[in-house]
Amino acid sequence: MTNPLSTRHRYGLALLLTLALPLLAQANEPLPSWHDGAAKKSIIEFVQAVTDQSSKDFVKPAERIAVFDNDGTLWSEQPAYFELLFAFDEVKRNAPQHPEWKTTQPFKAVLENDHQALAAAGMEGLLKIFGATHTGMTTEAFDDYAKTWLSQARHPKTGKPYTEMIFQPMLEMLDYLRSQDFKTYIVSGGDTAFMRAFAEKVYGIPPEQVIGTTFVTAFQLKDGQPSILRTAKLAHNDDGPGKPESIDAVIGRRPILAFGNSDGDLQMLQWTAAGSGKRLMGLVHHTDAKREWAYDRQSSVGKLDKALDQAKNNGWTIVDMAADWRRIYPFEPAAPEQVQ
Amino acid sequence: MTNPLSTRHRYGLALLLTLALPLLAQANEPLPSWHDGAAKKSIIEFVQAVTDQSSKDFVKPAERIAVFDNDGTLWSEQPAYFELLFAFDEVKRNAPQHPEWKTTQPFKAVLENDHQALAAAGMEGLLKIFGATHTGMTTEAFDDYAKTWLSQARHPKTGKPYTEMIFQPMLEMLDYLRSQDFKTYIVSGGDTAFMRAFAEKVYGIPPEQVIGTTFVTAFQLKDGQPSILRTAKLAHNDDGPGKPESIDAVIGRRPILAFGNSDGDLQMLQWTAAGSGKRLMGLVHHTDAKREWAYDRQSSVGKLDKALDQAKNNGWTIVDMAADWRRIYPFEPAAPEQVQ
């Protein structure tokens, strides 16, 4: 029997290793869709500091709580919050059972795509639309409606399912954090049940780690069969100050990392920042009109004004989507690494 | 060099193994403080069925949600809910700052240990006592008060800290479930923040897995310092139908195992039972006047009447504390195994 590692074989193996090692290194490097800039660096340095047992900044795994806004932070939110587009579609789908909607605002405006009348209906109008499409049914029925819509609806600009309009760099950040024993939560203004309909599949975030706006529910027994009815009464508005309130109520620990993209995330970022020890506060800044959208201080959706000033003043991480991300969506090819 | 495994050594090793194996088996056997009766058997058979990948009853780890009531299920609740005794002690501690309490009900009744006047004050009076002792402070301040009381107060009958009056067999059940990738939750009428003050240390249940009664909170910024204020407005009463409602709101999955001890747990048990696939519903029946307390249908604390009937009719697991548990509290020696 000859030695299988002959000189020729050994050279071949060496060559293979030479070729493969950089690829392996690249595969294991976190955040591959992030350019090597200050934002990526701040995330990796933070994670290394709090997970290094010899570091003064070490945090026990149980306390590695990371919270993320959803709309505009984990997926796009233009031309309107995707959940609002779901509500509009549900009004249209249910219109045949509600002939009165043809002549009643704000439903008439939805059916006629009358943006001006919709804007005039304001928050009160929106709550009526949410009441009609999100409540008056069991939690299981709502989950079915949301899943059906998510599987069928397409975004007006990209033609993609909404669940594909998620940010690849943020998916990588969620994965990276979980690989370092962080518990990743969504804390967002969206309806908790709507977000749960896709968060586990799309983000790997289980229902018990999804915190959002909630309606009062009522346990009911019909013919011995229990169910939980969603009523139209708002229980908690998970926006602005509502975010640290729900974090305290549901998680009961202060996060050490928080990411948002708008003024609605400011209090969550302040609450996170005010804890002791090392923390990371971050904002996704929508600066990429070409690959996504560019908006901040003047936007009616995802307005980013005060939080941007505070982020700059306090040295929080600001992610410049155009400059920091090699790709936006998973379905796109990555841009080549920039020369720094 | 001689072979270290000489014949003599090998005999020695075999002897050691022969002696050690039964001990190891005993150490690894779950639920050692449970007598080998029907209750223990039902728990072990359930866990084996849902964790066996080849079983038709297999449940994925992510869906192994187990919920437990606290008062009367994980710890004692006599002569009154321990949290109520905390509230009474806090009234007494704070009385010097509230001279008006000497002449105002229900505070006067608490200060004078006047049980009759307290009973007459009813639920409205209790809410006033909870409002005065549980709210009007930040969540962090409340956590401090609760922890201080828990470390200093002693039970009037046993003289033990309340956090030692926990049920050893239930601790073993929690451990056993977690070792089989269950996520264990408390779902109880107690104040969420009060239970969080000891649940992690005492039961190994982290704050985010403690669900209870909540008060409305308010995020506030004072001199740039954010905090969360507990207001006296009740947000959610986590009793009866409130339990499946909060399970749905916070966990978003239906449990496959639920344990309680009173009619306040009935709807949680019904909600758990109505899911598809194998499930386990259980009641702790307080039958041990000698080692703990004996009470059920007529008790003002932890009344167990309708739920007992439904448990019997539906074949739910009923734990007879006197007959099923070899010991009640961790500080007691275990009773010898019964001859079956």
UniProtKB/TrEMBL annotation, chains A, B:
Key word Coiled coil present: no
GO cellular component, one term: cytoplasm
Pathway per the UniProt entry: Amino-acid biosynthesis; L-serine biosynthesis; L-serine from 3-phospho-D-glycerate: step 3/3
Transmembrane regions listed in the UniProt entry: none
Record keywords, A-Z: Amino-acid biosynthesis, Hydrolase, Magnesium, Metal-binding, Serine biosynthesis, Signal
InterPro entries per record: HAD-like_SerB, HAD-like_sf, HAD_sf
GO MF annotations in UniProt: L-phosphoserine phosphatase activity; magnesium ion binding
One GO BP: L-serine biosynthetic process
EC numbers, comma separated: 3.1.3.3
Signal peptide: 1-27
Enzyme class: hydrolase
Catalytic activity: O-phospho-L-serine + H2O = L-serine + phosphate; O-phospho-D-serine + H2O = D-serine + phosphate
Cofactor: Mg(2+)
Protein name: phosphoserine phosphatase
The organism of origin for this protein: Pseudomonas prosekii
